[in-house]
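Q: I have two molecules that I believe assemble together. Could you output structure tokens for the complex as a whole instead of separate predictions?
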Amino acid sequence: GAVVSQHPSRVICKSGTSVKIECRSLDFQATTMFWYRQFPKQSLMLMATSNEGSKATYEQGVEKDKFLINHASLTLSTLTVTSAHPEDSSFYICSASARGGGIGYNEQFFGPGTRLTVL
Amino acid sequence: EDKVVQSPLSLVVHEGDTVTLNCSYEVTNFRSLLWYKQEKKAPTFLFMLTSSGIEKKSGRLSSILDKKELFSILNITATQTGDSAIYLCAGAQAQKLVFGQGTRLTINP
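A: Yes, here they are, computed for all two components at once.
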């Protein structure tokens, strides 16, 4: 099956610093990558969708200047949390999909997640 | 607004019991209904359901979709402690997934 990796798996940082999280598709070309956030005991909330080579589409309520997404290649997307604050502490999960034929749903493959703690 | 609602939110049973988890959805441009199991990390894929009335099975797990009632269930028979997890269902649009809030299942020995 398709494999998606994330790095780092866990990061602790001071308030005000920026943190970059990488998401890589290891054995397929991901035309679309998704970034989710999950707070404790809550479900996955989609933050943004990014297509390779174009600007990310952010969900309502997600600040695009705070959560910078770069999808520079078909195997790598990065999420940078700028000027992180304690309320940004969360579990961030990326997923990747490849464009398929037909009109069906394009399956997403999830990375293992990154736990961010902002002190 | 797209939404997916799961019930119950939490369920505690004894090993060997059978459980049924529920998922209702209202998702525009609906393509499929997906079930995931989440332990400590990212969700792992269980089932994708696209057609009504066709049961999908994998070992002790099975799932079915009712596109008329906009509803799906996930059944787990002869539960084991390793089944303890959060079970998520998601409605799939062409690209996006809309997740429910999950059911936290605890299996006691």
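A: One point stands out. The mean pLDDT of chain B is 94.
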